[in-house]
Amino acid sequence: MLRSMASAISALRNHQTFMDVVSTNIANVNTTGYKASRVTFQDVMSQTLSSASAPTDTVGGINPVQVGLGMRLGGIDTIFTQGNPRATGQPRDLAIQGDGFFVLQQGDTTYYSRDGVVDVGTDNTLVNPTTGMRLMGWMADTTGAINTGLPTGAITIPYGTGEARATTEVTYQGNLDVEAEATDTVEATIPVYDSLGEIHALTLTFTKTANDREWTWAVTAPAGVTVANPTGTTIAFDSAGAYSTPATTTIDLTGFTNGAANMTGVVLDFSSLTQLAQASEVGATNQDGLSAGTLIDFSVNEFGEVLGLYSNGMSRTVAQIALASFNNPAGMLRMGQNLFFPSPNSGTASVGAPGEGSRGRVWSGYLEMSNVDLAREFTDMIIAQRGFQANSRVVTTSDEILQELVNLKR
Length: 410
Hints:
32 strands; mainly beta; 3 domains; five-stranded mixed sheet
């Protein structure tokens, strides 16, 4: 058999593989998070007809004489370049801007994916709706803190759970009449929420002192609340009527009969008060407490934090999505369904929060498009076709040579 025919046959087989890879890339041009593949070829061993010789005093060196014996498939590499983000208008769709992978789990098996289609399952866990696999991350504690040093677990959206926020600061605005007499009083209301979301209307009373620029204040509470440890109970104004001192005024609220937690260091901000020659009028303009509300929706920020949105307007971190990175992502195994699985040459997963290392950040409302370059794929298709054609001609020509040899004996 002619060497040329054997070489051409190996090329035909491997150019068919080349075409298979190109066709798969084109087929997945609109597959979410798909990463294109690339084919590389290598020559196989060559037959040495004569060896090389070193130069001598009389003649120069002689190169080896070798005949190649064809080619083989060198490798099929996965190209992990960034795909373009595509806006979907669906805030639960997620795209990674970086090198990370979403961590998905099915039973005891963990997979990795760039496909950020996310929905909420009937058990309130975040899942990929196509595979049913759960999205992994960390749940926040009752204060909203997240410990990414713990093992990852399924992310659960606690729909319907109640949440309230106790008041920590009340801001006042208004004027205390500079012409007020000593012992004159001005009253205002302190609306505060306790840790259970119940509102309490406390009374704030300002009393003019004998000093032209000073007032004292005191807080009284209705039954069921105790006011304790007031600080900075004398406030002063400068000659222009602007608030002067003290920098901080606080109270503690304790003894709630409804079982709410004690509130220590509640700030009363008087810095916007004035003392001018006009009637006294003081009111609370803002306080940061909230009544009880239930979780009705959630959003995801660029750091993968899942923010619960409550019916009372409150927003609190309830979980964080985990991302994984690999030293050699091209070494991962494709498992279908946009999933990857580690191999001995990919390295182990380094799992952490988005925004750390090379994992990248999360874009809500986007999906990552395939990184397939159609112009390159169609060019590769032509190259594969011409390579196949050329090698088929070699087979035909080799066959004609063999025919001539057979025809020598007639």
